[in-house]
Amino acid sequence: MTMAKDDAPATTSKIREVRAEEVAMMPLSKGDSLLGRTVTINRPRAELFAYWSDLTKLPTFMDNVERIDMLSNTRSHWVVKAPAGKTVEWDAIITDKREGELIAWASTEGADIPNSGRIEFRDAGDRGTIVTATIAYDPPAGIIGKVVAKLFQREPAIQARRDLRRFKQLMETGEIATASWTQKQLQEETA
After folding, report:
1. What is the pTM of this model?
2. CATH number, position 181
């Protein structure tokens, strides 16, 4: 177990060798957008890795993910909310998995939104675990599609930041803070 010296995601790391090595490992094609987000979570690395390893649990904190169906140990089917009330779907394959450290994936041929990425877990000493998500994706309709997604709050860069924040809340407190009213609160208020 090594202590991380740079909390930054590969896309913004000040350590050039780390950035170049990690970004080079991700499959990118022309037009892809690359984003990285990092959060420190006050929980043991093994616990966070175990939760993330069960892909069917990801919709509990990923706001735009409607569901993930496991097709095999390494293949999954994703259904994700898109702008204007639509959904996009794709199959993904886990391309690398190192117990307690890393899960990497890539969408299969024909994905509505071709994407690949990795989620990394590194010790942060007494502070818990550094969780870094690095995602490459090819937005439909190029830059126009990216702008539309941003307007509808469905753009992956926005969602990655929010999803990691929700993951942190869920892992540290057991719940996700929300401004939304529960059905019971709504009934009490309108009664």
Report:
1. 0.72
2. 3.30.530.20
